[in-house]
Specification:
The protein is of the alpha+beta class. The protein has two domains: about 220 residues, no CATH class; about 70 residues, PDZ domain (Pdz3 Domain, Roll), CATH 2.30.42.10. It contains ten helices and twelve strands. The strands form three sheets. Strands 5, 6, 7, 8, 9 and 12 form a six-stranded antiparallel β-sheet that branches. A four-stranded antiparallel β-sheet has the order 1-2-3-4. β6 and β7 form a beta hairpin. The chain is elongated, with a radius of gyration of 25 Å.
Length: about 375
């Protein structure tokens, strides 16, 4: 473990020690409560707003939530299948790759990632709350939560009233959160496709990262933009791939690169592509670099990337939340349906089997992601 991680862990531990010393030991209906690496701030101030929103058209919210139930079970089946397929690949090849950890500033961009996560949390929890009130279920509070270093938001229903509610009402409340995330992702995708993307024009291939030990290692840097290779323009990803497909291992390549706003000429000797024998290999993780065709890039580009990450995080987290494992919403939906429709004698074995399989699939998907993060 390097010194940076030691300092980070020490800082996190000190933060939680002080937080617990000043605010811990007592759970409050309002205000800040701190337990072991969990901090929750509760308020009742937004409950009136949620109540008013739910009364605008109760029938609409119930239809919306019924669609959320259907989407929830379809999404549950899809996520289970996707994680099972990735887990099987991990067992067969020893390589994972189906799950990406969401850590702003580490695995996703810091500010765009934070914007996306805030939108995910707000629409998810607001949807839970509005549907609960449309079902005339009481809410205790709303608030913010910090789990170790992971921020979140919550709407806290009256659990006793929720447990006594009809199954359909409970499923509506559980499915509403991911339904809101998926609707938000669809709306955002439409905005990106039809409103923002037409304002952008491809202008090169950006180096998002460099493969250690590759020909580009030490030559290209993260953030460099490749404008041409051996005099052939590479403004689009298609042009870049076409140029690279015509190269061979051992060839010397001259790259025109935009670095810190200035054009520079760089040279390197191509290696052999690890998956495509006989093809040249630079050793970068490329992504499309774009500029605004109308100028105002300080406004247009942040808008585009904010919307992009709002889409990615809402679709990814919204679907993952439907995985059939408590305390996720998908797990609560699965659990309640099992208890409602299966004979009492097999409910417990089915639930424990689902928990065991779910934890195994999560482990087989998350452990490779953690290994990639550490490596």
């Amino acid at each position: 473990m390097n010194s940076t991680w030691i300092w980070i862990i020490a800082g996190i531990t000190l933060f939680w020690t002080l937080l617990y010393a000043f605010f811990g030991r007592e759970e409050k209906e309002e205000g800040l409560s701190v337990d072991f690496f969990i901090a929750m701030w509760r308020t009742k101030r937004l409950l009136g707003f949620i109540d008013r929103l739910s009364r605008i058209n109760r029938k609409f919210w119930k239809v919306y939530a019924d669609i959320g139930i259907a989407v929830g079970f379809i999404g549950m089946a899809y996520v289970f299948y996707a994680l099972a397929r990735t887990a099987m690949r991990t067992l067969q090849t020893g390589k994972g790759g189906g799950v990406q950890l969401v850590i702003p500033g580490v695995t996703i961009p810091l500010w765009y990632g934070l914007v996306g996560l805030v939108v995910v949390m707000v629409v998810h929890e607001l949807s839970h709350g509005v549907v609960a009130r449309a079902e005339r279920l009481p809410l205790r509070s709303v608030g913010l939560v910090l789990l170790a270093v992971i921020p979140g938001a919550f709407v806290e229903p009256d659990e006793e009233a929720l447990e006594k509610a009809p199954l359909r009402s409970r499923l509506r409340v559980y499915g509403a959160g991911s339904m809101a995330n998926i609707v938000t992702a669809i709306v955002t995708a439409l905005l990106v496709t039809y409103a923002v993307s037409p304002l952008l024009v491809p202008a090169g291939i950006e180096v998002s990262d460099v493969v250690k030990g590759s020909p580009a290692y030490g030559v290209l840097h993260r953030g460099d933009v490749i404008l041409s290779i051996n005099g052939h323009e590479t403004k689009t990803m298609e042009q870049f791939l076409d140029v690279m497909n015509r190269t061979r291992p051992g060839e010397k390549a001259t790259l025109t690169v935009l670095r810190n706003g200035k054009k520079v000429q760089l040279s390197l000797t191509l290696g052999e592509h690890p998956q495509r024998k006989g093809k040249g290999y630079i050793g970068i993780y490329p992504r499309q670099y774009v500029v605004s065709r109308i100028g105002h890039e300080s406004l247009v580009l942040p808008l585009f990337f904010s919307l992009y990450w709002i889409y990615v995080l809402n679709i990814g987290i919204g679907l993952m939340n439907l995985f059939p494992l408590v305390p996720l919403d998908g797990g609560r939906m699965f659990d309640d349906v099992v208890k409602e429709y299966l004979p009492q004698g097999i409910v417990r074995p089915v639930r424990y089997t689902a928990i065991g399989v779910g934890l195994l699939l999560l482990a087989l998907n998350i452990i490779p992601a953690l290994s990639n993060l550490g490596g």
